[in-house]
Write a structure and sequence with these properties.
The protein has four helices and twelve strands; from the N terminus they run αββαβββββαββαβββ. With about 190 residues, it is an alpha+beta fold.
């Protein structure tokens, strides 16, 4: 009888250890997220299930074109792409991204640009100082984010620049649906 009691106790310890480890991983290292809406098409699709890496930005600063999840409000997280970094002036003119006056290619939009008709636009012209906050450059500790589906995205053009401390993590892997399983990024 004592042997059976010890065996149950060992199983209970193993189960509690596994649950504790899963909790730590989920809270501090990686987290699942489901893409909600079309704002990141064609890169991410509505209902794609992804893993968000929460430790990347504890080790390094965000990079241009990283796809990040951030707290848009107390109730809602958004997923968008970083376009502007602290200290940079961001501007779009005739479908071209300009950072500090230098054109920057957005290779993730190449297919969209090739398929659009002459009268269509992907990104309407704007300059950073026209956005909420009216900044001349992205302030320290903030980033400017846009959805890849620029015509259907609530992003920095409406929200203003995003505090880096509101970033949950970097979206790194689509794991569902299986036919879309892939690492994401630039």
């Amino acid at each position: 009888m004592a042997k059976k009691k010890n065996e149950w106790f060992d199983w209970l310890k193993a189960l509690l250890f596994a649950l504790g480890l899963a909790f730590i991983v989920r809270m501090f290292l990686f987290s699942p997220i489901v893409v909600d809406g079309p704002s990141m098409l064609p890169t991410l699709h509505d209902q794609d299930q992804m893993i968000v890496n929460k430790i990347t930005y504890k080790i390094r600063k965000p990079d241009r074109f990283d796809i990040v999840v951030f707290h848009a409000s107390a109730q809602k997280d958004f997923i968008k792409r970083i376009i502007g970094l602290p200290g940079e002036h961001v501007e779009f003119i005739d479908e071209v991204l300009y950072i500090n006056g230098e054109s920057v290619e957005e290779s993730f939009l190449t297919e969209q640009k090739e398929n659009m008709k002459s009268y269509q636009t992907i990104t309407n012209d704007f300059a950073l100082e026209e956005l909420p906050g009216e900044y001349e450059v992205v302030p320290e500790g903030h980033v400017l984010v846009l959805g890849d589906n620029r015509g259907n995205s609530t992003d920095s053009r409406m929200l203003g620049v995003i505090p880096i401390d509101q970033i949950v993590g970097k979206a790194s892997l689509i794991y569902w649906p299986l036919d879309r399983m892939q690492f994401v990024g630039e």
